[in-house]
Specification:
alpha/beta, five-stranded antiparallel β-sheet, five-stranded mixed β-sheet, 23% strand, disordered N terminus
């Protein structure tokens, strides 16, 4: 479990409580002709950037204290949200499943056990835990051995029926099929790291004399590696799984070590191979083949692993904008509410939650925002962000949002390199969103007067040059906002830190620049 300093915990708790209850500073005398008019003028100037000439921009800013709309342009227009979709998915998941929700993974035995022989099948049953590592499956295998099982006369059965068999979102791009951030969704999956990139394997290359050495994390023979790379003066290498196969082709030249996160083609089959190997390593021999199917009702539990809580999972999920977590939680919601671990059932839970909290303009096609048919209005996002402030789980959820300029990866998240050295640093808590031609930033900021503000910025259909700095300028201006004083020349607003990649969430680029 990741630990933070006591001072950081105390500070973030105070901030969260302030956001849940409103600011403690006394009210100031309002003069709309000074502060709000100046804010409107400055945001309009920021949005006059030439990169947005042919683009679509929707921006809404609201006072969380008074409910007043301080700024709005195209507030009701349906725009592509990218990963701002996760605001809806995560809030609905916490409301539906609870912060204490855990994913169990169990091993069951069918038939009768006589001494060290299980005369029946061994069943590995999953419920979607995205935090399962190879070592966790190994620990389950060790528990089976500790239970006295040495020989299984039947099959190794992989039970992934907690979810349906649809692995990819309806509208996901075909060319993302091998990318780890669009990995197939299964109730049985495994992650290669503690970012919990479920459904993927890390493939590493390094120069070894005059040859290129290839390794995987975790070690697995599930993937078929075709190594065509050569040692060269520089590292210019492509590691890519061929569509619809488990074959990874490596081409190019290698000088320095390099690694790539690669989605597996079938998470259930991949996990089955990991588990069978672990069983053998602990002296458990399964005589039959590996198959897939549901565990019979009379199967007896031999071993169990439970994930971290959803409250803890929110951190890697939201800070790093993990798509697979979003889709697994979507199916988990469907399973809990209607007994169907499907996208359609889970998305109904999310949209019903949104509508129950006053959100009107919404079109959810997946849980992560990978679909370009997802549609929200900035006004709807602000409505959701307003409504959840009254929820008992708000402080935990609020702290899971990326925090501008905070260098700690699991605090700053996708905003860790943005807005450094500005009034927005360690102030803005917001969800990023990035696809080609799409960027969004929505969340919370405290003004110079101590007034809590809620905002949503959605920029669509720009052709070149990432306009994330436009989002940052608006967020910084909101942090400078005062109802009784002007902030200065909006054109002079600058943000510190490294430039953020425009086409994808920065955390999706491995090794991640944020």
């Amino acid at each position: 479990m990741r630990r933070t300093s006591a001072s950081l915990v105390a500070g973030t708790l105070v901030a969260a409580l302030a956001w849940a209850s409103g600011p403690s500073t006394p009210a100031v005398a309002l003069d709309p002709a000074v502060g709000v008019a100046d804010l409107t003028q400055d945001i309009n100037q920021i949005l006059s950037d030439s990169r947005l000439t042919i683009a679509r921009a929707g921006v809404v800013v609201k006072s969380a204290k008074t409910g007043e709309e301080l700024y709005a342009t195209d507030a009701g227009k349906l725009l592509t949200p990218a990963s701002n979709t996760k605001l809806f998915t995560s809030a609905a998941a916490v409301e539906t499943l609870g912060l204490d929700y855990r994913f169990p993974t169990t091993v069951l035995g069918t038939g009768r056990k006589a001494g060290s022989v299980l005369a029946g099948d061994l069943v590995l049953r999953g419920t979607g835990d995205p935090t399962m590592l190879a070592e966790d499956y190994d620990a389950l295998a060790a528990k089976v051995a500790a239970a006295g099982v040495k020989v299984v006369t039947g099959k190794l059965v992989a039970d992934d029926t907690w979810f349906d068999s649809q692995r990819l979102g309806n509208d996901w791009s075909w060319d993302d099929e091998t990318a780890y951030y669009a990995a197939p969704i299964s109730a049985l999956t495994a992650s290669p790291d503690r970012d919990y990139d479920a459904g993927s394997v890390i493939v590493s290359v390094a120069a070894d004399g005059d040859k290129v050495k290839v390794s995987t994390t975790p070690e697995t023979d599930y993937l078929k590696i075709v190594n065509k790379a050569t040692v060269g003066a520089e590292t210019d290498v492509l590691i890519e799984r061929q569509h619809g196969t488990r074959t990874v082709v490596i081409t190019g030249t290698v000088a320095e070590p390099y690694q790539e996160w690669v989605a597996v083609d079938d998470p259930t089959a991949y996990v089955s191979s990991l588990f069978r190997k672990s069983l053998a390593g602990h002296g458990v021999k399964v005589l039959g083949p590996t198959t897939a199917g549901a565990a019979p009702s009379g199967a007896k539990e031999l071993a169990r692993h439970e994930s971290m809580t959803l409250g803890e999972l929110l951190v890697p999920f939201m800070k790093l904008s993990n798509n697979i977590h979003a889709e697994i939680l979507t199916k988990a919601m469907g399973r809990k509410v209607s007994g169907q671990g499907t996208w359609s059932a889970g998305l109904k839970v999310s949209t019903d939650f949104a509508k129950a909290n006053g959100v009107q303009v919404i079109n959810m096609r997946d849980g992560s925002g990978l679909s370009r048919r997802d549609g929200f209005s900035p006004g709807s996002i602000v409505q959701l962000l307003t409504a959840v402030r009254a929820k008992p789980w708000f402080s935990t959820w609020y702290e899971s949002l990326p925090i501008a300029g905070n260098p700690d990866r699991f605090t700053g998240g996708t905003l860790r390199s943005r807005m450094r050295g500005t009034p927005a640093e360690n102030n803005v808590h917001a969800k990023t969103g990035s696809l080609t031609g799409v960027t969004s930033l929505s969340g919370y900021v405290t003004s110079a007067d101590g007034e809590p503000l809620i905002f949503s910025i959605m920029l669509n259909q720009y052709l070149s040059g990432s306009p994330k700095d436009i989002e940052d300028k608006i967020a910084v201006r909101l942090a400078q906002f005062s109802r009784t004083a002007a902030a200065g020349d909006a054109a002079a607003l600058r943000t510190a830190g490294e430039p953020a990649p425009g086409d994808l969430e920065c955390s999706w680029l491995k090794p991640a620049p944020c």
